[in-house]
Amino acid sequence: MKHLITVIRVFVALVFIASGLVKANDPLGLSYKMQEFFEVWGFTTLHFTTLPA
Description:
Elements: H1 2-25, H2 27-41
């Protein structure tokens, strides 16, 4: 059982690392997504934190 949990933990860690690398590779696309999230959640004052698009 401990080995299964370790494998799952490593898998989840690799998924998060891969996700971070993909987002770092496309900063403009990430800024568009951040703007969308800010609009949906009503944080319109945080638009200055995204890259100018």
